[in-house]
Prior knowledge:
This protein is an alpha/beta fold. The protein is built from 13 helices and 21 strands.
Amino acid sequence: xxxxxxxxxxxxxxxxxxxxxxxxxxxxxxxxxxxxxxxxxxxxxxxxxxxxxxxxxxxxxxxxxxxxxxxxxxxxxxxxxxxxxxxxxxxxxxxxxxxxxxxxxxxxxxxxxxxxxxxxxxxxxxxxxxxxxxxxxxxxxxxxxxxxxxxxxxxxxxxxxxxxxxxxxxxxxxxxxxxxxxxxxxxxxxxxxxxxxxxxxxxxxxxxxxxxxxxxxxxxxxxxxxxxxxxxxxxxxxxxxxxxxxxxxxxxxxxxxxxxxxxxxxxxxxxxxxxxxxxxxxxxxxxxxxxxxxxxxxxxxxxxxxxxxxxxxxxxxxxxxxxxxxxxxxxxxxxxxxxxxxxxxxxxxxxxxxxxxxxxxxxxxxxxxxxxxxxxxxxxxxxxxxxxxxxxxxxxxxxxxxxxxxxxxxxxxxxxxxxxxxxxxxxxxxxxxxxxxxxxx
Length: 441
Ligand code: SAH
Ligand code: SF4
Ligand code: F3S
């Protein structure tokens, strides 16, 4: 703990992990700005907030090296910045972080509305730890949204009751809760007023959102009618929450983009059962068939874990076969990482690192091929691209296609414009486009 010091005048928030952490990081920055602090680079900040991720061991260990780096950089300049650890590591290891790294503030993902108060306590040299898991409380006290880029995140649901046996999220984010319909619509309106053209609805299980008997598809249909909004997306979904209503929304709702991130994790029913996924390989495949029936051009994305305890070569081959059957437009794949306190961490048959490396390489080779094939198949299509930022070359701009592909093009369009673009070439990580028509912003 640092000696008593002045209240900080400047801050920097650095977020790791999933999109919800990005959202939380934005909200913390808004909160600190409302308190009169100025956002600056990490090296110049009086208060550095590390918004952390606990999902895999490497993510967690990174926190400790980051804390060391912030402190060392500060000392080199003769400064002693306050360090706050927020996010999922704060929730899971609050006391341990204080003991091991002597940070000034620890604040969990459901408690960060108390950050200003914690900063004052820390500046006075007092203990400042808040890891209460009171769901939804924070939303009521956060400042209204005033700043955003053209593509904005909006958390509508948090927490998880699924308890997949490998996963820490139910412990770090708490139980599944949904924000009210009115709260979400209000925040969406504020974001649109602030310049958002696209909104991505976020939740650990976003398709479990419900409020007063309404489901995610009702929310999507309501948001679709908001003037000024051009695109809607949502992530992350669980196969159990893909209702027919939501699938139908993909067929009917024009602003709902043809993209679905629907993690399956593994292709073997035995492994899926040991993971407590509550779906089978075939139920997942049938679900994908129904989604494709509703929206044939939909881009599918997934998450995969290789080397879950006890996974045999034959079981891994079933994952490879499933990937081959589905044909993903993009995906995230990980080596299993045993997490403290989760049931899978103590299962027998932990898979050797070298075996996991080999399986991950083989899986990623197929997934990369599929992604490239999807992008190549898009060449020749003309589609709207939402311009999000400047590229490296003069008059080059970068944006996203409806299928969430990165597209680069030469244009004098501005950030936030929707440009009609012909996709002309598939590069390894993006598509080259040529402008055909500008839509009024
Ligand atoms: N709620 C979401 C995402 C949770 S975390 C969902 O259920 O889809 C994002 C991804 O991290 C998971 O989908 C999973 O593939 C991966 N993951 C979670 N725990 C992990 C672990 N212990 N080891 C390796 N990967 C993990
Ligand atoms: Fe973790 Fe499973 Fe919940 Fe996703 S559904 S957050 S993987 S426990
Ligand atoms: Fe990481 Fe927490 Fe998100 S563990 S993936 S930051 S919910």
